[in-house]
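Run log, item B.
One chain of 217 residues. Sequence copied directly from the ordering sheet:
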Amino acid sequence: MGYAGANRTVVRDVIALGNMVAMRKMTFCGLGLVLGSLLFAMACGGGDDAGTATPAVSVELITGTGSTTPRNRKTLTPSPTPSPTPLQVCGPNPDPAPANVLQIQEPLANAQVGLPIFVRGWGSNIGQDNRGVTLSVVDQKQNAVQSNNLPPQPRDFRVPPPGLDVTDFTRPFAEDVIVTNVNEPTPFCLWVYLSTDDTGHAKQVVQVPVIVLPRTP
């Protein structure tokens, strides 16, 4: 073969060996790339559908414990029922009579009365000298539209009201009073008194405010 042939044989063997090493390196690199791709795909979750994480759903079951928490409730305060407003037709009483001396039984204060106005009551000593009482009808301007003397009546078979001092001169009185020119419900003040002083002012007075209704045809 000779020296030159031997050298060529050695060169071919070296080249073949280098090619084999290079091919092995390429094979290992390819396997590494494939393995890396697979690992990357697994790490990414395998696609867009699996890439969005589904939020966890938390379900909490609430069961009754058998007791309730009381709530503060606003208590409604009922409105007070308005009381009737007393008639202002009566002015200040100049000399009030005590109940043990003079009492008016009818009409009641603030009552609506028709015509004639029936007035009755008792006096502790109105039978003495047959003096009786005086009744004046006073309008809203404090003018006495009329005055009447009411004589005492017999006491037989009649019972004095509670609180009245009963004497030998205790007597009842009563009268039907007619007021003219009443065309609509009109307030008046009834003054019942025992006497007047030297200046004409009433003494021992009981006042009764009323509304006088007109007569019906």
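Observations after the first pass:
- The mean pLDDT is 78.
- The beta strands are 102-106, 111-113, 117-123, 133-138, 144-150, 171-177, 186-196, 202-212.
Flagged for discussion on Thursday.
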